[in-house]
Write a structure and sequence with these properties.
The chain is α/β, with parallel strands linked by helices. The chain contains eleven helices and eight strands. Strand 1, helix 1 and strand 2 form a beta-alpha-beta unit. The structure holds uridine-5'-diphosphate and magnesium ion.
């Protein structure tokens, strides 16, 4: 694989042994049919099941399949970043392994990019009816919030299924931030982009690898990465608390002056819990930003590569 391929297909995979054979069976005819040199770069995100074994087995009969194994589970976004850092194609498509994103669209995305000279082609979901109600409601809340926080360019139904030109990939790789959320940073780079739409399909096998904890992590990374609005919210809450405290002070002093000091357990309790709650919330918000600054300052990589089958080929004389 000395010659750079025209297309790299980057696929993050975490414990996908059930869906892997189905995915390969659907992706391979599509990329074989493109008529251009390609590589399929699977990033094995520290899978604990038989995913690595199955991948090695597929490689025997599929030379264009390249496997980058991460030492530990780094998460969806970090896995994609690992793939982008290593992909060699003039165009790079990122796609989930669970067949919710139909691989057949790749041909159309590549044609659109080449014919119209586009740097990014987003694949947007025109229909999410196969997603669970919970997923749809949380997704809507997520995109509404992000839009309000200034991520105007990102399309509400475009996830991480997209095609990028080499220039775009290089720009993404050069970004300094660590916990980048690609669906938000790619549109912000400002490259000319186009869009294709598709129906979101059901996962044919296996289960979602996005538990609530990972969804919350993605949301927090998105918000803190996009804006410092929550810090301002903390300021406003502090200001409102101050005003209320002043009014209560006047009330207490007047009560003292006219001798109407009734011992009030409820009011004390309410004030203490409310102020305590607001303080804890604000400390938490501050903590998120401090933590983000801290991890960025440490400069530790967000993933560790155990091996890359594409590199083994390259180490010849
Ligand atoms: N994934 C990953 N690392 C993780 C979680 C998920 O590489 O820690 C991969 C997963 O194998 C799949 C893609 O990211 O290819 C999207 O995950 P999934 O389909 O489970 O998410 P959902 O569609 O439920 O949001
Ligand atoms: Mg999925």
């Amino acid at each position: 694989m000395t010659e750079a391929p025209v297309l790299s297909v980057v696929v993050p995979m975490f414990d996908e042994e059930e869906v892997l054979p189905l995915f390969v069976a659907r992706l391979r005819p599509v990329v074989d049919g493109l008529g251009v040199p390609y590589e399929v770069l699977v990033v094995d995100d520290g899978s604990q099941d038989r995913t690595p074994v199955l991948l090695q087995r597929e490689r025997v009969s599929w030379p264009q399949l390249r496997v980058v194994r991460l030492r530990a589970n780094a998460g969806h976004q970090a896995a994609i970043s690992a793939g982008l850092a290593r992909a060699r194609g003039s165009y790079v498509v990122t796609i989930d392994a669970d067949l919710q994103d139909p691989p057949e669209l790749i041909a159309e995305m590549l044609r659109l990019a080449q014919d119209d000279g586009l740097d990014v082609v987003y694949a947007a979901r025109s229909d999410r009816s196969t997603d669970t109600r919970f997923k749809r409601v949380t997704a809507k809340g997520y995109y509404d919030t992000m839009r309000r926080l200034g991520a105007h360019q990102s399309h509400a139904h475009a996830g991480d299924y997209r095609l990028m030109s080499r220039a775009t990939v290089e720009a993404v790789n050069a970004l300094p931030e660590h916990h980048r959320v690609l669906r938000l940073v790619v549109p912000q780079l400002g490259f000319p982009g186009g869009m294709v739409t598709y129906r979101r399909e059901e996962r044919p096998a296996g289960s979602s690898k996005y538990p609530l904890s990972k969804m919350v992590r993605l949301a927090v990374d998105s918000i803190t990465g996009a804006s410092i609005a929550p810090l301002r919210l903390a300021t406003w809450l502090g200001l409102a608390g101050f005003v209320v405290a002043m009014l209560l002070l006047v009330y207490a002093l007047v009560g003292y002056a006219v001798g109407l000091n009734v011992p009030g357990w409820t009011s004390t309790f309410v004030v203490v819990t409310t102020v305590g709650g607001i303080q804890l919330l604000c400390v938490g918000i501050l903590g998120e930003y401090v933590g983000r600054m801290y991890t960025t300052m440490l400069g530790r990589p967000t993933y560790h590569v155990a091996h890359d089958t594409g590199e083994a080929v390259d180490t010849g004389p």
